[in-house]
Structure prediction request, 417 residues.
Amino acid sequence: MHGQMGREWPLVAGFSAEQIRNGLVWLMFAVSFVVFVEPAPVDLMFLLVLVAFFTGRFNPAITIMPLIMMLLLYNIGGIGSFFAETPDPKAVMFVITSFYMAFSAMILALYISEDTDRRYAVIRSGLIVGATVAAFFGLADYFHIAGIIKNPAMPGRATGLFKDPNVFSTYLILPAMMIVQGLIAGTLRRPVLCLLSLCLIALALFVSFSRGAWVNFFAAAMIVAGLSFLFPPRHDSRMRVIYFIIGGLFVGFIGFSLVMSIPSTRAMFIERFALLQSYDAGETGRFGNQLRSLPVLMVSPLGFGPLNFHKLFGQDPHNTFINAFASYGWLGGVSYFTLIISTLYAGVRAVWMKTPWQGQAIAVFAPTLTTILQGIQIDTDHWRHFYWLIGLTWGYFALTATDTLRYPQHLQAASAQ
Prediction:
């Protein structure tokens, strides 16, 4: 099932290769709160992680190969679409970014499928640090604290050190779910600090005024709580779930009441709470453009070419599934649909199996599912954290599928708990 690749480094300054890799991964996630510049610090750190990964020893699981194949086919479709249409100069970077996102998913899948407990702790710690700092800057941005300059493109909405409030807010959801699951399971080293971080993250997410992120966050939290109740990691976990829901609703109500007492916040909430915005409705609105694009895409095997949907319809597609066919052609579109369906299967399989890492898989799969569904409402194609979710989901699937055969005693021990 596994094939060992690469050679392990010797000790460097007293640190093992694994410690160096884990340190780089932690730092990559810890600096992921800065993405208003390109390349972002997280992208530069990923290059170091990539070098550290391939100069070391790793065991690629055959169960991850479908993920790799689908991502490669998806991007091959994008290259074909790129060369078939008149290329936009920016489209070159689009293609490069697509391959980068795919590689990030592959590497994370391979990374988490070995030494899982330790590596999950590394990822969770780095993400919580990154999300907490991101939330701080988002709130400082929104409330004009410490001279933080507001993003002029998105007045009245928190963006932090991101370009877009929708990306900023959904980036916060995975670390938030890791905290929620950790509080329920009692696996967090500093639960009080993590709880404070969760409150900060939730407030920053709220004042981003991203409707999709609100639904994403609430639905993911309910899925984590529901699955943790169904598959309790410890004997008192079901009561913890009940306490968490009651406490969360109480704190959420108090926080909501306080921020809604601010007139500008209340006005923005009423505006954003509407089901349809002005740019959604009408023949040339978001949904109208999506409908008008479908007949054209059905006779365009190579799609429109990356970034050309906007040129044809005056707006971006705001739908990941339509964008897959528009920017990656039929090959890319079919590959993406296959990727999403198989990722959902992989996530359900990882969550449903009683394993020592089941709680971790729940924390990862819940936002994976909700972000996939959010792709119907907005284009998630180049969201870094979306590819992190896909990669981690497949890593847990590979771990579950492989260790069910290799280490059945793990499952027997987990079932006995």
Summary: The two ends are 28 Å apart (CA to CA). The chain has one domain: 17-416.
